[in-house]
Amino acid sequence: MNEYAALLENVRAKKPLVHHITNYVTVNDCANITLAIGGSPVMADELADAMDIAAISSAVVLNMGTLNERTIPVMLAVGKSANAKGIPVVFDPVGAGASKPRNETAAKLLSEVALAAVRGNISEIRFLAGLRSHTKGVDASDADLAGASDAKQAAKSLAERTGGVVAVTGAQDVITDGKKTVSVSNGVAMLGSLTGTGCMCSSLIGCYLGANPDKPFESVTAALLSMGIAGEIAHERAGHLGSGSFRAALHDAMSRMDASVLERRAKYDEA
Amino acid sequence: MNEYAALLENVRAKKPLVHHITNYVTVNDCANITLAIGGSPVMADELADAMDIAAISSAVVLNMGTLNERTIPVMLAVGKSANAKGIPVVFDPVGAGASKPRNETAAKLLSEVALAAVRGNISEIRFLAGLRSHTKGVDASDADLAGASDAKQAAKSLAERTGGVVAVTGAQDVITDGKKTVSVSNGVAMLGSLTGTGCMCSSLIGCYLGANPDKPFESVTAALLSMGIAGEIAHERAGHLGSGSFRAALHDAMSRMDASVLERRAKYDEA
Amino acid sequence: MNEYAALLENVRAKKPLVHHITNYVTVNDCANITLAIGGSPVMADELADAMDIAAISSAVVLNMGTLNERTIPVMLAVGKSANAKGIPVVFDPVGAGASKPRNETAAKLLSEVALAAVRGNISEIRFLAGLRSHTKGVDASDADLAGASDAKQAAKSLAERTGGVVAVTGAQDVITDGKKTVSVSNGVAMLGSLTGTGCMCSSLIGCYLGANPDKPFESVTAALLSMGIAGEIAHERAGHLGSGSFRAALHDAMSRMDASVLERRAKYDEA
Questions:
Q1: Interatomic CA distance for residues B238 and C200, integer angstroms
Q2: B25 within 8 A of B196, measured Cβ to Cβ
Q3: In chain C, where does DSSP find H-type helix?
Q4: Per-residue pLDDT averaged across C83-99, rounded?
Q5: What is the distance between the alpha carbons of residues B262 and C218, in angstroms, rounded to a whole number?
Q6: Strand pairing of A117-120 and C40-43?
Q7: Residue B139: what pLDDT?
Q8: How far does Cα A220 stand from its chain's mean position?
Q9: With CB atoms counted within 10 Å of each terminal CB, which end of chain B scores lower, N or C?
Q10: How far apart are alpha carbons C173 and C167 in whole angstroms?
C-alpha cells in the first residue's frame, strides 16, 4: 500500500467533520463529494453558528466563490479560531484577481490566517503569488494556462509566504510545501466541463487533512490523486454520454475509491 | 389500496404548493423531490416575499440547515402566519444541539409556532426532547445511534410537547403523534451516503401534509414510506454503481412512485 | 447550416463569460448548463464584486427566484452598469405576480434597465405585460396555461414596452421583438418535472447573446431551440427511467449539442 492509500483509509475510518464556509453554486457538490470520500460535511456561515461548528470540526474549508459582506468576516474569524485550536484550514481563492473584494479578502486571509493548504487554478495562484495574472471570472484564463510551466514557480512562491501547502490544479496538478514538490498527472480535460470540480478538490483536501493532520503535504496530494483518478474512471465509463452522466459517474467513482484503486492508478512524480 | 396510497394520489391530484425556507446546501434536491412526488416547490426567505408566498401555499417547511440572522426571524414570522391561516408547518431541526444559534432557533420555533410535524435524526430529536444528545454536525452521532431503541421515547416526549407529529428517521423510522406510533422499516443504509436525504424527507412531508391536511399522522408516515421505498428501488438499480447513480435513481424512483408500488412495498408496524 | 447553428458555433468558439445574479435553488443547474453549451459561468451578487465581474462579462443574467434586500439593489446597479457598457442583460422574472417584492423588483428593472431579453412562463409574462394573471408560486398556473394562445399577445405587448426580445416558454415557446415573432415547438412536457429548466433557458439566452450580441432575436430563439431539442433527446434516452436520469440526460444532450443536431431537429415557425 502506498502512503496515499493509507491516508484514504484514515478518512474512511475517522469520518472527519469538515466545516465549509463556501459558495452557493457548488455547495451541494462539495457536500456530496465529502460524503463520497468518507467525510462528514457541515456548512455554517453565520458568525455564532460557524464558530460553534468549527470548534467541533476536524478541518475548515474557506471558499470565496460567492463571498459577501456578511460572510467575509466570518471566514476570517473562523480561520483564526481554527488556528488557535490547531484545526487545519484550507483556502480556495475562487476568482482571486477578478474583483477588488475577492482580492482584498484573499489578501486578508493570507495575512491573518495560517493556511494549511491553498488550492486554486493557475490564474488564482499566480495572482496570490504576486505574479502577473489574467483571471477571467472563475476559470483559468488561456493566457495563464499557456504559462502553466510556471505553476511550480507560482506555487512555491506562495507556499514560502503561507508556510503551508499550495496546490495548482489543471491539466497537471502541482503540489508543494516550498521544499518538496510533486506533480500529479491523473485527470481528464472533461473535469473542466463541470462546475465545482475545483471546489470539490478543496473539500477533498479538507477530508484528507482532517483525518491526517500531521501529513499536510501528502494529504493534499492524496486528495488531488483521488479527484484525478475518479475523473479518469468517470470518463472511461460515461464521458461519451455527456456532462450529466459524467458528473454522476464522478461521484460514483469517488464513493467507490479504495486503497487498491488509488494505489494502482496514481500517477505522480517528484517535480 | 392502503390508506397511504390514497394520500399519494391526493398529492398527485392536488399538486400542493410547498413553501420552503431552507438551507442552500440541499435546496435543489428539496425542489426536485417535491416535483417528483407531485408537489410544486417554492423557496422564499425574505420577509415580505415569504409572507406573501406562504399565504398562497398548502404547506410550509422550515429547515434550519444554514440559518442566519436574516432568515431566523422570517422562519418565525412565516410559521406564525401559517398557523393563523391553518396552513400546516413542518420543522426540520438540522444540527439542533450543535450550536447555540441552532439551539435557540429550535427552542423559539417550538415555543412560538404550532408544528404539524417535526422530523429529525435521533441526535436532533433527542436534543429537542431534552434528552442527552451527542450531535456531531448535521449527522446523527454514533453514540446516539447506539441508543436508537430510545427513538420512540424521544419522539413521544417531543410530540407531547408540540402536540403535532414527530418523526425520527434512521435505520428504522419512528413516527408518533404521542398516542399512535408506527415504525417504518423501508430504506437502505446508502441513503446516508447522500447529502439532503433528511431534508428531502421533510419536503415530502410538506407535500403529503399539503394535500392531506386532515391526516397529519398518516401523511408523515406516507412520506417516510415513500422515501424508504424509493431508496430501496434506487439501491436495487444503481447502488452497486456508486453514490452519483444512486442519487439519480432515487429521484427516478420517486417520480415513478405510484399507489401500487407504495402499497406493495410498504413495511410498517404499529410500535 | 441554418442561422441558429452558426450562433451555436459562435458560443463554442467565444466561450462567453456569463455573469449571473440568480437564486440559490437552481444556480448549480445554471452553471452547468452554461458550461454544457460552451459558455463560462460566474455568479457574484455582492455589490462591489458584482460590478467588477459584470465589467468583464459578455452577458448578465438577472434572475429573481430568491431575491432579497441585499441583492435587489445589486441587480439594478449591475443592470444599469451593463447597459452603460453595452453588455446585454437578460431578465428572468421568477414568480412575478406572486408577491409584492417580486412585483416591485420586476417593475423597477423594467423601468430602469434596458433588457435585451426577458424570458418567463405565461403567468409571469402576462403579469409583466399588465394582463390578468394567476401566478401560483413559480410555476405557470393552469388558468393562465388555458389561455396560452394569448402568449403571443402578451409577449408582443411586453416587447413593445422593453424594446428588447421577450420569450414565453411553455408547451410551445413564443419569441418576439415586437415585430418578428417565432414559435418553437421543440420540447417535452417532462421538462416541467425538473426544477430550473426555465432558469436554465435564461442562462442559455445569456450564452447565445454573449457570443452574438448583434443578433438578439435569433439568439433567444437559438437558446430555446437548444433547450427544447436537448429535452427531446433526453426524453428519448431516459424519460422512461424517471426524473433523475432525465436530468442527467438533459445535461448530456446539451453538452453534445452541435450545429448538425440543432439544424436537423429544430422546429420553428414564424408566428
A1: 27
A2: yes
A3: 3-14, 27-37, 47-55, 71-85, 100-112, 122-128, 142-146, 151-162, 197-211, 216-238, 243-255, 259-265
A4: 97
A5: 47
A6: unpaired
A7: 74
A8: 8
A9: N
A10: 7
Question: Do B53 and C99 count as a contact with CB atoms less than 8 A apart?
Answer: yes
What count of residues does chain A have? 271
Chain A hits for C49, CB-CB cut-off 8 Å, are 67-68, 99-102
By C-alpha distance, the chain A residue nearest B242 is A252
**Crossing angle (nearest 10°) for helices B100-112 and B71-85:** 20
> Between B66, B99, B243, which is nearest A255 by CB?
B243
pLDDT in tens, B112-133: 999 999 999 999 999 999 987 7
Number of domains in chain C: 1
Instruction: Summarize pLDDT for A111-165 with one digit per residue, the tens.
Output: 999 999 999 999 999 999 998 777 667 777 766 665 556 899 999 999 999 999 9
Residue type, A210: G
Question: Which residue has cell 389561455?
Answer: C147
Nearest to B31 among C25, C100, C136 (CB): C25
Minimum distance, in Å, between the CA of residue A11 and any CA atom of chain B: 14
What is the distance between the alpha carbons of residues C255 and B146, in angstroms, rounded to a whole number?
Answer: 46
A265 pLDDT more than 70: yes
Q: What is the pLDDT of residues C6-46, one digit of tens each?
A: 999 999 999 999 999 999 999 999 999 999 999 999 999 99
Q: Is the pTM of this model over 0.90?
A: yes
* Closest alpha carbon to B193 in B244, B257, B248: B244
Domain of residue A67, CATH code: 3.40.1190.20
pLDDT confidence band for C112 (50 / 70 / 90)? very high
Question: By CA distance, what is A138's nearest residue in C?
Answer: C42
Cα separation, B47 vs C77, whole angstroms? 22
Asked if A181 and A152 touch (Cβ cutoff 8 Å), the reply is yes
Chain A residues at the C interface, defined by Cβ less than 8 Å, are: 23-26, 28-29, 65-69, 95, 98-102, 136-139, 193-196, 241-245, 247-248
Q: Which range of residues forms the domain containing residue A196? A: 3-270
**Which residues of chain B neighbour A36 with C-beta distances below 8 Å?**
193, 242-243
CB pairs under 8 A between A and B: 103
Q: Residues in chain C whose beta carbon is closer than 8 A to a beta carbon of chain A?
A: 17, 19, 24, 27-28, 31-32, 35-36, 40-46, 48-49, 52-53, 56-57, 70, 247-256
